[in-house]
Specification:
This protein folds into four domains: 216 residues, 2-Layer Sandwich (Cytochrome Bc1 Complex, Chain A, domain 1), CATH 3.30.830; 183 residues, 2-Layer Sandwich (Cytochrome Bc1 Complex, Chain A, domain 1), CATH 3.30.830; 188 residues, Metalloenzyme, LuxS/M16 peptidase-like (Cytochrome Bc1 Complex, Chain A, domain 1, 2-Layer Sandwich); 173 residues, 2-Layer Sandwich (Cytochrome Bc1 Complex, Chain A, domain 1). It has a seven-stranded mixed beta sheet with strand order 1-2-3-7-4-6-5, with helices on both faces. Strands 8-12-9-11-10 form a five-stranded mixed beta sheet. A five-stranded antiparallel beta sheet has the order 16-17-13-18-19, sandwiched between helices. It is built from 29 helices and 24 strands. The protein is an alpha+beta fold and 841 residues long. A hairpin with a 2-residue loop joins β1 and β2. 41% of the residues lie in helices and 20% in strands.
Length: 841
């Protein structure tokens, strides 16, 4: 088009420059008529100065509050897109902020109009931003419950003295509470949120010419006035000695990390560091494995972490222990240093290096399946400095060799340029509160391919059509009993059965299996539940038969090594012990145990119950459980671009005759030192689509009453929702919210007020219309994620006995009447709700 200047093109990415300064990236793909529209602003926490730290994240929230033409008063704001079935969100990080929506391609103009208007004229209303402050603070407080996040923030603050990477994206609590000055935020917005500081990316099955016209129509209102962007010119000075951070807080864990100064993400050494990180912690032959399996060492896990950022960043190696002591942390740090010394002479690591390169390549391939994933990968490349790096990185990866690995390790793994962080259990010291003295107070590019116009609606199996070359397999095997022992065995089997198998008296070791999966780019994982073992796999269509045969061999003839069994028991005990400090996990288990008796297959066992039985579990019990699974009822689902197959082997028991629901006093679990408290309500009910729609009116994201009132109007929480969760033979109506301990009383009162109002009065036609529109519109959008389609078909077969429901879903939902929805709501009684609170009460 004449309004755009053609720029670069490569690997299906077409770049254009608009007259407003906006960069446009078009990535047309075959598949469902779904598109991800993502706008990336090249502004993040690195661009913030004194007085506006946390501003980019705060604006991420604020820009959802509406713009001049699209806002709450007009009832057509950003969240209106959910009515069209869109999945939408935004993220903020050090180098960029992005806003995205995954939506039916025919509805793209609804997204583009709103995106342009909130760039041009966001409301940034003072009162709305004030309420959002407590929401953002609650998000910060939830992160402060996580030991890893807490230590990472302080390591970053110690490692970077000058560069703004020293403060986290969300900022510190006092900054969050102080960044609500509307004029400062507007000035920050007007400085950085401009067309020439943004890239708008479209990935999916869309009409290219129409998208370009829509973008031009909306962004042409930006004049070519002052669009200069301030440079961030600060560089970190040379570090001349190791720095250390020691932290103590109420926790059951002990963890540490050692972080080294490393280059920016587009540097020629950055990909080699990616390979090194993989060599340290990925796969059965990773360098960390020797130390992890040494029973004389208290090491639970060693994980290398390397993110490619716009400016020089940190290469970090994290260590967790099985013992929450300083001596365990010291041993872990010494083991990490031994791993780093191995790179002084990597001559014996060629196979490991090649395996790591293959693992990275497969990871990149798989992260770009689906329109949303592709758009997010491009988003991160833009943040690093070049959108086309999503493909350039492959070339750099191919060039990595042992010599490069040795050179890079020698250059960056210098203890003098490292920062070490330790965290272990202890009491929090008293806070020193400053006294503020106020003296006045004492006085009175290239040619585009033709548009894809394939009409997928012609097929009865419309939902099985998608545009990649992989097939997804789902297998579920049902145990004959549901007990804590069955759950433990299923979980341990899920970990052991992926570690090698026998075939015709020959051994396929974990190492050989890992290499084979990597070479074929096959991803598979197993998981265990209280009465089932589940397998999910993603297999290239060209190797489908080989991949399926491999899955069957893993299920039938796993090695089940006894020493690994003992190692996994020890490792799991350590993880369970640490989970007792996690407010979300504890609240989930507490509510479940408030609703179900132990004899119910929906019951979830406590961490203490699991540990007790885990420690006494015999190896033979595991083998016996595996033998029974081989003859258990089985459901197999295969979905590929050509269609789907679902097969039953035996009768899968879906129904439960009787649910012994417990109704007791409110359950409270106090965990000291937590900055965010979880509040949950729940009740066992019979599942119906009518009730699901009623519950959606109460708590389905921003179209639900809870988020609209408890979060948006009152600012008590970052997140609160209501849902109807299908279980075995029943469903659970549940509400989950997080609150600061200081806001828990008000938040609880307002939440209960909203619930009672929802129960008391009939829902309106408009409320129900919105939820019907959203649930129908989101059907194809949810299938954009790789594997989501196979999981939906598999789950639907398990729940309903037939997959016809997926194609008939729109008809099913539209047939439900308002009277039926209001009647279904009558199943719920406020007096019968179980209530759980977990945290610092």
């Amino acid at each position: 088009m004449e309004n755009f200047t053609r720029a670069r093109k490569a690997n299906g990415i077409y770049e254009f420059k608009h007259g407003s300064g906006l960069t446009l990236l078009l990535v047309p793909q075959n598949g469902l008529k779904v598109t991800t529209a993502n706008i990336t602003y090249r502004v993040g926490s690195r661009n913030e100065g004194l007085g506006v730290r946390g501003a980019t994240h705060y604006l991420e929230h604020g820009m959802f509050k509406g713009s001049k033409k699209f806002n709450k008063k007009l009832k057509n704001g950003m969240w209106k897109l959910e009515e069209f079935g869109a999945y939408m969100n935004a993220t903020t990080y050090t180098d960029r902020t992005n806003y995205f929506a995954v939506i039916d391609s025919d509805k793209l103009n609804e997204v583009i109009m709103r995106e342009a208007d909130r760039m041009f004229e966001p409301l940034l209303d003072k009162e709305e931003l004030k309420k959002e402050m407590t929401v953002v603070r609650n998000e910060f407080e939830r992160g402060e419950n996580n030991d890893f996040e807490v230590l990472q923030k302080r390591v970053m603050a110690m490692a970077f003295m000058a560069h703004p990477y020293h403060h986290s994206t969300i900022g510190w609590k006092s900054e969050i509470e102080g960044v609500v000055e509307t004029e400062a935020l507007k000035k920050f917005h007007d400085t950085f949120y401009k067309p020439n500081n943004a890239t708008y990316t479209f990935v999916g099955n869309f009409d290219s010419e129409k998208v370009m016209q829509m973008v031009h129509d909306e962004f042409s209102k930006f004049d070519e006035g002052d669009q200069s962007i301030p440079d961030m010119y600060t560089t970190e000075p040379l570090q001349m000695g190791q720095r250390r951070v020691n932290m103590q807080r109420p926790t059951n864990c002990a963890l540490m990390c050692i972080s080294f100064k490393a280059p920016n993400g587009l540097h020629e050494d950055a990909i080699a560091l990616k390979v090194i990180a993989n060599m340290i912690s990925k796969g059965p032959n990773a360098l960390s494995q020797t130390f992890k399996k040494d029973e004389s060492l208290p090491i639970h896990d060693i994980i290398a972490e390397w993110e490619r950022m716009r400016d020089p960043y940190l290469f970090s190696i994290w260590g967790t222990t099985n013992s929450p002591t300083k001596s365990a942390l010291q041993q872990t740090e010494e083991c990490i240093e031994k791993i780093l010394k191995m790179f002084h002479d990597p001559s014996t690591m060629k196979d490991l290096m090649e395996s790591s390169k293959g693992n990275i390549k497969n990871g990149w391939d798989n992260e770009m399946l689906g329109t949303r994933n592709t758009a997010m990968a491009i988003n991160e490349a833009i943040a690093r400095g070049d959108a086309f790096d999503v493909y350039r990185r492959y070339e750099l990866l191919e060039q990595v060799n042992l010599r490069k690995i040795q050179e890079v390790a020698k250059k960056y793994f210098d203890l003098r340029q490292s920062t070490v962080g330790w965290l272990w259990p202890g009491e929090v010291p008293n806070e020193i509160v400053p006294t503020n003295y106020d003296p006045l107070k004492t006085q009175t590019f290239a040619t585009l391919p033709s548009s894809n116009t394939s009409d997928f609606e012609a097929s009865n199996d419309v939902f099985t059509k998608y545009g990649n070359g992989k097939a997804d397999v789902r297998i579920s095997l049902q145990s004959d009993t549901s007990s804590v022992q069955t759950y433990i065995c299923n979980y341990l089997l899920s970990q052991l059965m992926t570690r090698g198998f026998t075939i015709e008296n020959n051994l396929c070791s974990e190492e050989k299996l890992y290499k084979f999966l990597q070479d074929k780019n096959i991803q598979r994982a197993m998981s265990g539940s209280v009465d089932s073992l589940h397998v999910q796999a993603s297999i290239p269509v060209s190797d489908l038969e080989t991949g399926c045969n491999l899955l069957l061999r893993e299920l039938k003839n796993p090695i089940l090594d006894k020493s690994t069994f003992e190692y996994l028991k020890k490792k799991w005990c350590s993880e369970l012990y640490g989970s007792k400090n996690n407010v979300n996990h504890m609240a989930k288990f507490a509510l479940n145990q408030a609703l179900f008796q132990k004899t119910d297959p929906n019951y979830r066992y406590s961490f203490d119950e699991i540990v007790k039985h885990l420690n006494s579990m015999a190896y033979q019990t595991l083998k016996d459980t595996h033998s029974k699974l081989l003859t258990a009822p089985r459901l197999v689902t295969l979905v590929s671009p050509k269609g789907h197959t679902v097969k039953n082997h035996g009768v899968w028991k879906r129904n439960v005759d009787n649910h012994l629901m417990k109704q007791g006093e409110p359950n409270e679990i106090k965990i000291n030192g937590k900055s965010s408290t979880v509040l949950r309500y729940g009740m066992v009910v019979e599942y119906s689509d009518a009730l699901k729609l009623a519950v959606a009116v109460l708590g389905n994201g921003f179209t639900g009453r809870l988020m609209r009132i408890v979060r948006d109007e009152c600012g008590y929480t970052y997140g609160i929702n209501a849902s109807l969760v299908p279980m075995k033979g029943c469903a659970v109506f549940q509400i989950t919210g997080t609150f600061s301990p200081t806001k828990l009383k008000e938040g609880t009162e307002k939440t209960e007020e909203v619930i009672k109002e929802w129960l008391k009065n009939d829902l309106t036609e408009e409320e129900v219309r919105v939820q019907k529109s959203e649930t129908i519109g989101s059907k194809n959008v949810q299938f954009d994620a790789p594997g989501a389609l196979a999981s939906a078909i598999h789950h639907t077969k398990l729940m309903y006995g037939s997959v016809d429901r997926i194609n008939k879903y729109e008809t099913i939902i539209n047939k439900i009447t308002l009277d039926e929805i209001n009647a279904a709501k009558g199943l719920i009684s406020f007096e019968k709700l179980s209530k759980v609170r977990v945290g610092s009460l």
